[in-house]
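Problem: given the chain below (467 residues), write out its structure.
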Amino acid sequence: MAELVWEGKYERGVRVLPARAPVVLHTDEVHEGDGAGGPWKNRLVLGDQADVLPTLASDLAGQVSLVYVDPPFETGGEFDFQASVHGSPARGSRLRGDDLPRLAVPAYRDSRGLDAWLAWFDGAMRAAFDLLAVGGSLYVHLDAHVAHYAKVVLDEVFGPGAFQREIVWRIGWVSGFKSRARGWIRNHDTLLFYAKGGRPATFHKEYIPYPPGYVRRDGKPPRGRGYPIEDVWNGSDVDRMDSIQIMSFSGEKVGYPTQKNESLVSRVVRASSSPGDLVLDFCVGSGTTAVVAEKLGRRWIACDASSIAVHATRKRLMRLPQVRPLVVQRAGEREPGSSDGARHGDACEPPRGGPRKLSARVAVAGRRATIELASFALPPRAVPPSTRAGVAHWSQWIDGWCIDWDHRGGAMVTLATGSRVWRSRAQAGLPLSATHAYDGPGRYVALVKAFDVLGGEAVKRLEVEVA
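Solution.
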């Protein structure tokens, strides 16, 4: 079999395999959710896959049914998250999302260099192989920058017989700046589909319904279920799946630069998993895989090395009408006794600008306590003066906040949330107070955590005495 060799793959003729020492995953938030979830809690993790996946494998090796991943494409570019500053509640602003002021927040750099990208990808795919169940499916979403290199790496890791299909996703119409390119116009991405062991254990074949009035060439009505979906997606009028990036008014957009359609990822999740199966995405970006898996009743784990990606994902999940129990974690130090030199946490950059300042107050009436946010401040250099000057109320910086009414984490900042207040798309103002009824008298600690539009967080502890 042909082999792809990159710098660092061999040392003195010996194959160098990626280090796989587990790290400690710190739990920062526990969201109990709105529906039944059993003992399982979905997981959103801040950390590079090189740290997170080996840690997951210690408990979940061979248990993942589906991996969908949309990794960096090695384009050489830098990508920003477009954070929206919310309208002022004092002015009753009801601007649409596309009309709100936006701030560019660095999301990730896509410029490792080909050799470094191949080493990263090889390590990620070996970790994914360990996590996948026999018959589990892998979809890797790429474009022409590295898709052909990735195919050779995947053949080496999974075996050539594991390859199932190359899926071409037509992005959509060609117009404007895109059409000025010299030569053929790029208008597709590639999804490489593999199955561990060579045969997918799950595949739910889908059909596109025939349009009204459809008849066969002989004039008779159709007897089948519709058009079976082929390996070219969005390639005809009956299979519309244009990228949301070319739709000016897509309601799905969250400002993440490489966000993919829910319709695209839903097709993958429906076909290659069943309700209750475990789905993994270790470059979750805007959070589409987590949101789709949540809506379709799959268990899921999502991670990313970018704090703004974790923020965007959490924000989308908290906006859902219902969300099942989930934990938010971050990769920390390596476990005691680990001596390998792999990095830990260098990709998990702090939120823009430094620490935030949050103040809140509590009022108690009987056994009912009401917590109200009093102020929130970003660091002076977090946003340009021109944007700061246009903000009339401090709450415009906040995407959402939550409260652990009976916090028992001691000095830890772990949050078992009891109340969630999250700004909806149609909401002009953000509720700044929440009330809770305690079961009995006593002294309690309430932990308040606020999330801002730049992906930062602030925490406030409050003493609550109930008579």
